[in-house]
Amino acid sequence: MRGKRMALVMMLAGIGFAAAAEPVRAQTAPAATLSIDKARIDAALGAMIADGRAAGVSALIWQDGREVYFGTAGMADREAKRPMRRDTIAQIYSMTKPVTGVALMQLWEAGKFRLDDPLARYLPEYADMRVYVGKDAAGQPRTVPAERSITVRDIMRHTAGFAYGAGPTPAHDAYVAAEPLSLTIPLAEASKRLARVPLLYQPGTQWEYSVAVDVQAALVEKLSGQRFADYVRTHIFEPLQMSDTAWRQPDARLPRFAAMNVKADGKLTQQDAATARKLNFEDHALTPGGFGLASTLDDYQRFARMLLNTGELDGARILKPSTVKLMATDQLDPAIKERAWLPGKGAVGFGFDFAVRKAPPQTPQENRGAVGEFFWDGMASTLFWVDPANRLTAVFFVQTIPYDGTLHRDFRGAVYGADYKGPAGD
After folding, report:
1. Are 99 and 233 in contact (CB under 8 A)?
2. Region for 225 from its dihedrals, namely left if φ exceeds 0, alpha if ψ lies in -120 to 50, beta otherwise
3. Pair 227, 221: CB distance under 8 Å
4. Which entry of 197, 213, 265, 307 is 20 to 30 Å from 352 by CA?
5. Is the per-residue pLDDT at 426 higher than 60?
6. What is the C-alpha separation between 180 and 196, in angstroms, rounded?
7. What is the pLDDT of residues 4-29, one digit of tens each?
8. How far is the C-alpha of 249 from the C-alpha of 256, rounded, in Å?
9. Reading across the β-sheet that carries 261-264, which strands appear in turn?
10. Which of 374, 372, 383 is nearest to 405 (CA)?
11. Strand, coil or helix: what is 355?
């Protein structure tokens, strides 16, 4: 049972994330007006279904304060013959992370912590962390004390040193054994379990996508005195009118829920409905900060539009403009050279729970986009981004596992055009 729970949690978590770095400033005016070509996007979505990369896809784009594109292709549930619709509910996996970051930064605005405070000031279990440094002559794992404390900034930019599942070292093995993301435990216990696992590297020295956003969620609980899900609902979802977004969905929404499709040997296989019900229609002790939300296009687009509008939407102020700018600014010191797979996202750095584009696309193969955009995606290949230069937000839904970056490349190419490089950096 323990192995099955761990496999379930890892599928949920996915794969598919004072600064010394030079800030990346979002462009305020594009070099040329970007026009959305509906036929080109429709064709791209249709091709994803035709070539078997997805069972169903949908997309919603806003520009200059109005909807400029909505489209779908394929099926939300092939077995039930339900097409993708505007109100289809999809699992967004790691697109949960930016929501958690916004929640924590609300508490920063309230003066509850400073970004460079030691994490242990609020979560004492992280007071004496150790770092894995290899094996001794007898083949036993060696650890040394952390050279400095993990800071809150570290957990927001993935430089704390935490693992995120199985891997090649004994520290990864210790993470798997600890089961910090077991759905049967609350966030406070998850944090304590994680604190007993050796770090993969000294805090602040590398970028490694990790369980850190779940630590952010535990910190939200500690600082707010509320259950994490309750805090997010009352401070983000309800003010933004995101009525269909939740970790635990009501049973009445099951007919709107998109089936998950797992690709193996080049073929998509639809996951059984019982698995979907277990993941999103049952109560769990854990409300993770890094995964687990299900949402609709319109709901998540409201979240994206709030960010584009510097923290406010339809009279609901969620963050200050300066806080959104901070989150969307590259936080990685130039000295941080080891960045795992982050360079595969393009010419990007990393802010607080977002990747941040620092330069125009460098190769024809790189995803299209504009300097200053910030974005993230999810393990089931979902994607969203905020493009201040073109005053645009886009949300793309699909339910394909493993993560398929070609879907993002093709969708972005359809939105911007294959040759788009955006305005030059300032």
Report:
1. no
2. left
3. yes
4. 197
5. no
6. 10
7. 444 444 444 444 433 333 444 444 44
8. 11
9. 267-270, 261-264, 400-401
10. 383
11. strand
